[in-house]
Amino acid sequence: TEGPARIVDLAVDREGNVCVFDAESPFVSVVNPAGARLLSARLPAPPVAGAVSGKAAYALAGGELVAVPLE
Description:
71 residues
């Protein structure tokens, strides 16, 4: 069974969607305010930090800054 995520960062976009950056997996997930998953995007490595600006989420992963479109 899967254990809980080790969240390294959370960020909220203009629509109230939450970007979840998990320190143990190479993904960023986006959930809406009701908790439904909208997208999951693969990163080159597990993220160490994350942020949202405009219509993109940004993750620092594997020594690079990765942009993930939110639309």
